[in-house]
Every structure is written in C-alpha cells, then in structure tokens.
C-alpha cells in the first residue's frame, strides 16, 4: 500500500508548489486567460481517475473496467450540453490548441481556405498564424479589425466573396468586444462556408448569460475549460449533430490517445458549478469589474485598443506613457500585479517586445473583489506604469497589494 506523501517523498517539488500557491495568494492575477479553480475541481483533478485508460467514447471503449469512467464522462457531456444548449459535445480535447486542430481535420481538407482573425488584432496562434503547422496544411487568410477597433464586417464579407473560404472562424484571445454571430453566419451562408467560434476566453461569460452564445447558430464551437469557465486546464468541442461523428473521429483516434479522465471529472465539476445561479452573478461581476478598469484607464489618458471592453479583458497600448508592454509587465510583476505584454493591432514593435499589455478580471473576481477594489487596482497600475523604473515605489505598491489580497483569501489552507 502506498504510504508516502509529497511532504515525505519529494519536499523539493512541494516547496515549489508552496511558493507558487503563495505567489497566487499574495498577488493580483490579471492575465485574462487565468483563473482559480475551486477545491472541488482540484480534488477531482487529483483523483485516482488519472490511473485509467479509456480510449473510445462512452459505452464504446477499447479497454475493460470503464463503467465508472463512462459515468463521469457522460455527466461532463450532459452538463456541458445544458450549459451551452449544445447538440453534441466532445469533452476529451486535452486543451484549446488540440481542440482547434481536431476541428480543422474533422471539417476541412488540406488546402481548404479558412478566414481567421490576424494575431495582432486579437486572433490566436491556432487560427492560422504562419508559424503553426496548421498554416502549412490549410490556407488561412487573415482578416482584421477596423480603425475603431471593431471587426470590419463589410471587409470580412468582401474577403469571403473573394476567397470563398470553406470555414469562417471567429472567437479571439485579445479582442474585448461582443461578436455579431448572426452577421457572421449570414456572410458564411452567402458563400457556403462553415462557421466556427473559438470561445475559449469568454466561455464562462456565455455560460453565465453575460455574452451572446454562438452554439445554437454555428456549426462548431471550441473552447478551453480553464479561463472564464473556471474549470481545469482542458478543451472541449461543441457542434451540431451533423458534425458529431466527424468531430469525435478527429479527436480520437485522429489526434489523441487515452482521454485524461481525472481532467474530464474536473470539467464535470466545473460545469456543475457554472450551472449554479451564483455563477451568473460571478460572470456579471467580471464584466462590471472590467468596465471600472476601462473607465479609470480612460480618465488617466490610456489608449484602449478596440475602444474599450464588453467582456473580461482590456488591451492597452502603453507607448504614450513612455514605455512598452514588456517594461510595463516587468514593473507590474515587481508590484505583485500579473499581466501579459501583448501586441496591439498592426503593432510596429515585435511580439517579444510589443506595444501593449493585456489584462482582465476573471481571477480577481473569483477572489470576491468588486468595484471599489477595481478603482484601487487601476490606480496602482497607473502608478506602476508612471513609476516603472522606480523600484522603491514598486515595492511600496507590492506591500499594499499584499494587504489587499489578505482580505480576499483564495484557498482554506496552504498545500
Ligand atoms: N494562452 C492563452 C491566452 O492567454 O489567451 C490562449 O491560448
């Protein structure tokens, strides 16, 4: 029988875990794609389900002993269907990138054209950036936002008429506005294209009824489960029934082997949490908090890309403040505020040294922070950016940040 614990057997790893937990507890986590899962989700993730192989799908496995695994995976599927109104759900994708790749291989042939958003305008690497393997297999044509920072639907339609894509792809990683799914669907129908939405960033806002839901309208919708949806690190694909067999075949055996059932159990737990009425309040608060940040930053003369926010994130061009995104990220880190440097649309600088920062409210909202805290946090961010090369000032803010986080503890105990 196993008896050794992490503390006894591997104190080195335990020490690193403890330090990371302390970092999470004592800092303000404002990377918009990050969040804090509940202890119940952590429990499922750390369960013995990790021991089991279960290639195949519910009721059709290649291995024996899958009766309880089937219960878990079916629950995850049923809850996701209820949450998003999906006809078919595949909960096995290991993360967002493999989910997107599985969709492409399910619905496209090599050489087919896809219209996807340019990375610097808010798109994602897996939406056809030239450095990805997918861009070597499929023909991605990239659309952009207009001068006001919104998706240029007229231009998108012109591009669709010109390029005759097999698929139009929406859903973004650094775009802060609502998406007009009906208008995109109309353009797709005009040119006979399939519709795909990658809702990784905003899945929790959709589940909480705070943003429009493309699932009933679009052919296929991919997502991660660990961002605003607040589940474990993982992916998921939802689609219309006509695409179900192709999607399932593409995930397994097309792309993946044994599903990570401990992770699927944790997804099921997170979906149950998202079905609770309180999750709607959480999703609404994420947006309210982002709006407060937007208002303070606007008052203080920051350049807000996309003109502001309708969701959980803000993309800010900091160059008019005398520094670039990388310097802002480093200075904010020193003050205990975690954001990421990010490209702005058609950034004249480089991806490793871009003009902007991207920040968001999902994780700090999970801690229970509301409007008053947002005012304070936005003020600190401005002070950090203004004093980005004054370590003494940054250290002073770090202490204030630590004091604030003590009032909003995350987990009952340290590891
Ligand atoms: N890395 C994720 C993000 O930060 O948006 C997307 O894959």
UniProtKB/TrEMBL annotation:
GO terms for molecular function: glycine hydroxymethyltransferase activity; methyltransferase activity; pyridoxal phosphate binding. InterPro entries: PyrdxlP-dep_Trfase, PyrdxlP-dep_Trfase_major, PyrdxlP-dep_Trfase_small, Ser_HO-MeTrfase, Ser_HO-MeTrfase-like, Ser_HO-MeTrfase_PLP_BS, SHMT-like_dom. It holds the Pfam family SHMT. The record marks 226 as: Plays an important role in substrate specificity. Its EC number is 2.1.2.1. (6S)-5,6,7,8-tetrahydrofolate binds at residues 119, 123-125. Homodimer. This is Serine hydroxymethyltransferase.
